[in-house]
Structures are given as C-alpha cells and as structure tokens.
Amino acid sequence: MRKEIIKLKIKHPLSDIGNILTISLGVATMVSEKEINCEILVKAADDALYKAKKTGRNKVDNVVI
Description:
Blueprint lengths: L1 H7 L16 E5 L8 H17 L5 E5 L1
Parallel strand pairs: 1-2
C-alpha cells in the first residue's frame, strides 16, 4: 500500500518532510490461540504507527503479540 501511494506522486507542497504524499503504517498481528482483548491489539497497532512516524516516516512498523 505504501509503495502504491508513492507511485501516485500526489503533490504535498506544505510538507516539511518531502514534496509528495507518503504514508506510515502501524501493523499488529497476534496468534489466534491467545485470548487478547481487541483493544490491546488496536493499541499495539497504534503504538507501531507512532513508532514508524517517529523513526523516519514513510515506513511500516510491525508488532507481533
């Protein structure tokens, strides 16, 4: 998905990061046998997103629960 967004070359002239639109993604996965509240999974994905943004943007950060 991230690479496809870059291919679109959508101009982003007000960005301090770059001149085209990019995205960062946070992904969380879990083993299906574990009984984990869905809120924990969403929080893990959110944390991964902020880590991706903090460590350079235009990237994907993944966490396995």
